[in-house]
Design a protein that fits this description.
Blueprint lengths: L1 E2 L20 E2 L2 E2 H11 L4 E6 L3 H8 L8 E6 L5 H8 L1 H4 L4 E5 L2 E3 L3 H10 L4 E7 L8 E4 L5 E4 L9 E11 L14 H11 L4 E5 L4 E3 L3 H13 L10 E2 L4 E2 L4 E3 L2 E2 L4 E2 L4 E3 L2 E2 L4 E2 L4 E3 L2 E2 L4 E2 L4 E3 L1 E5 L5 E5 L3
Helix pairs in contact: 3-6
């Protein structure tokens, strides 16, 4: 199951246009990367929950056949949380362990290995963990040497042990969902903390591979620049330019993603930026460290640095600082 129901408030103003899991990342809706990885890992059926701008999620994914799996949807008029969302569709999961994934990340972990580790340990739930780069932003999951989780964000009590970041990717026994009430709930607070307190096996597995939190405009920008540098997808030479984009021979594009139908004019410079589909950068314009949404433009000779540019009401172009 992919959790795609969030409001995406930290990603505004971009999420005024699309739900966060449908935002373009490396010239494709973010969900595409997750669905392709799930399919490569042997997943054949995926449930996706929706709430905010659900049509943008469904438009991005469809029935899932182009990814080699079947996608179905669970709409939540009220957001039910990481526990309540899966609880609502309990019958979908049957009796076998299932993978639960946050819909606002790019990652390439070995999911087959994660499931194998879960089954070998006979765990009730297994969490994919990484080193915690910023304990102030990401609450710590603490584990023993054998990987058993002893606390999550200080619950059920503060403990010592290796501190890691929970990536938002987990494998769990669907029978656990029966412990949750119908309605809103949280897997960490209302499920895993209680399991740990009861002595059940909640396993933490340190995973290898890329993991990027696409949670806010600065992270959205930084994550894609890191993916470009790593040659992710079709990126070459630190850039990704859609085959339908037009870049003038005297223009220069570095560390940037250029979407379909975008036009970069003569002597223009685009550096460290993400341009969605149909963006125009006029002759001699300078765009740096910015995000330009579909249909927006940097006019001839304009200098734009550190901005998020979207099309607002009545086609008016709005711009705010990336850090905002």
């Amino acid at each position: 199951m992919i959790l795609a129901a969030g409001l995406g408030t930290r990603m505004r103003p971009l999420t005024l246009l699309k739900a966060k899991p449908a935002l373009p990342v490396m010239n494709r809706p973010l969900l595409h990367w997750t669905l392709e990885l799930l399919a490569r890992s042997g997943v054949t059926e995926v449930m996706i929950n929706t709430h905010y701008l659900p049509a943008t999620v469904k438009e991005a994914v469809g029935d899932g056949r182009k990814f080699g799996l079947r996608a179905t949807y669970s709409h939540e008029p009220k957001i039910l949380g990481t526990g309540g969302g899966p609880r609502k569709v309990r019958s979908f999961f049957g009796d076998e362990p299932f993978i639960l994934v946050n819909g606002d990340m790019v990652f390439d972990f070995d999911l087959r290995d994660l499931v194998r580790r879960h089954e070998k340990a006979q765990a009730r739930a297994t969490l994919a963990l990484r080193p915690n780069p910023d304990p102030r932003r990401y609450s710590a999951v603490r584990t023993r040497k054998d990987g058993r989780v002893t606390s999550l964000a200080g619950l059920p009590r503060k403990t010592r042990g290796m501190a890691s970041l929970f990536t938002g990717i987990h494998v769990l026994d669907p029978a656990l969902l029966d412990r949750l009430p119908r309605g809103e709930s949280d897997t960490v607070r209302d499920l895993y903390a209680h399991l740990v307190d009861e002595g059940e096996i909640v396993l933490g597995v340190r995973v290898r591979g890329k993991w990027f939190d696409i949670g806010s405009p600065p992270l959205y920008l930084a994550s894609q620049r890191a993916l470009l540098a790593a040659g992710f997808g079709d990126a070459k030479g630190g850039v990704l330019i859609h085959s339908d984009a037009e870049v003038h021979r005297t223009a220069r594009v570095t560390r940037s993603v250029i979407g379909a139908g975008s036009v970069i004019g003569a002597r223009a410079r685009v550096t460290g930026s993400i341009l969605w589909d149909g963006v125009t950068v006029g002759d001699g314009a300078r765009v740096a460290d910015s995000i330009l949404a579909t249909g927006t433009a940097a006019t001839e000779g304009e200098k734009m640095t550190g901005m998020v540019v979207t099309t607002g009401k009545r086609g008016r172009q709005d711009a705010v600082k990336v850090s905002g």
